Each structure stands twice: as C-alpha cells, then as structure tokens.
C-alpha cells in the first residue's frame, strides 16, 4: 500500500500509528517494523506499507475511515508489486554487480531502505537483517527479469 500525508500533521501521525500499530519512519531511507506491518520511507510525505498477503484490503479500509477528514491518501498497489528476497553471505556481492549503492554493513544496516536500480530494474531495497537478508520490491512486470538476472549474477558464488 502507498500512504501519503503531511508528516508535520500530528493528527495524521497519531492516527496512522494507532491504526497500524507502528509509527511512520520520518528519517529518510528508514524502515519502521511492527508485528504485522512494515513502513518504508519513500519521500518526505510518502511511505510504502508492507503486510501479509490478503490483509491489505482491511488495512486500507480502516486507514481511509480513520484518516477521513485529514489530508491523506491510501492506495492499494499490491497487484503491481513483487517482493524478491535475496539472502546469504554473498548477497551483498551479488547485488553489487548490478547496483550502484554502497550496501556495506557500515552504511546500509538493518532498518535501512533505498530506491535504486539493480540491473536496470527500478527497485526499493530493504535490509531485513544482518544475515544478510534483502527484500527487493520491484514492479511485477520486471520480477522475472530481475529474478533471472540475480540467478545469473549468483552463479560464481555458488
């Protein structure tokens, strides 16, 4: 789900936190984790909300009702996105073959996210944990291409 709203509006922030059970990250390129939902910072007034499949409709409905009189927008984008997870000790090296971001643990640790390109595919990359485990959120139309590219890039790592 995509959420838009004004971060200086305390009523907006409180309402979202009450409904989602997690506060929105206000620092650029950070992630806030709740028990059933993650909120990823996309811009000064925009967040991506990730939840378990089939839960988004209920959350969207509840958020829209709760935010009714406030300047906000909640959009279901689930049918257009895919999450690819890549993990293991060589994950950073594999991603580095097609990504210009510095993914070293000293600058890109857990709780960080960034919009970038991997092998010419636009992705939102998020580090889930230090194993390392990365989630790559990509448009569904690019998912197969990116999956095949990742498989090929990982060949020399075994």
What's the layout of helices and strands?
Layout: E1 2-5, H1 10-20, E2 31-33, E3 37-43, E4 46-51, H2 56-66, E5 72-75, E6 81-87, H3 91-96, E7 113-118, E8 121-129, E9 133-139, H4 140-153
Antiparallel strand pairs: 1-4, 1-5, 2-3, 3-4, 6-9, 7-8, 8-9
Helix pairs in contact: 1-2
Number of strands: 9
What's the number of helices? 4
CATH topology of the largest domain: Gyrase A, domain 2
Query: In sequence order, what are the helices and strands, one letter per element?
Result: EHEEEHEEHEEEH
For the record, the CATH architecture of the largest domain stands as 2-Layer Sandwich
Shape estimate: elongated
Beginning-to-end CA distance, first to last residue: 35 Å
- In the predicted model, the low-confidence regions spanning at least 5 consecutive residues are none
Share of helical residues: 25-40%
The main sheet orders its strands as 2-3-4-1-5
CATH superfamily of the largest domain: Probable tRNA modification gtpase trme, domain 1
Highest-level CATH class of the largest domain: Alpha Beta
Q: How many domains would you count in the coordinates?
A: 2
Mean pLDDT rating: 95
Give the amount of beta strand, in percent: 25-35%
Q: What is the CA-atom radius of gyration, in angstroms?
A: 16 Å
Biggest beta sheet attributes: 5 strands, antiparallel
> Which structural class is indicated by helix and strand composition?
alpha+beta
